[in-house]
Amino acid sequence: MTKRTIRARVSGHVQGVGYREFVRRHAERWGLTGHAINQDDGAVEVVARGEATAIAELIDLLWEGPPAADVIEVSVDEATLIAPASFTTG
């Protein structure tokens, strides 16, 4: 069981469309911890920790988003951050 922690920045029309809640629902379903937080420039930051296969699923999902979202770019870096014990949408 290999664990990964990632930090992703999602750009496009991703605020005010339920994007953070969409990510939280899927992350919890896959047992991930972390957060999805709106950024001042209109992007969403996602930090997630969990099984490598679940993280890979999440990265694919970040490109999809909920129906009202229009994702233009997703940049992902490995992170050394400590994710919280649950998944939040602060």
Automatic annotation (TrEMBL):
Pfam families: Acylphosphatase. Residues 5-90 form the Acylphosphatase-like domain. It catalyses: an acyl phosphate + H2O = a carboxylate + phosphate + H(+). The active site is at residues 20, 38. Keywords: Hydrolase. The keyword RNA-binding does not apply. Its EC number is 3.6.1.7. PROSITE patterns: ACYLPHOSPHATASE_3 (PS51160). Belongs to the acylphosphatase family. This is acylphosphatase.
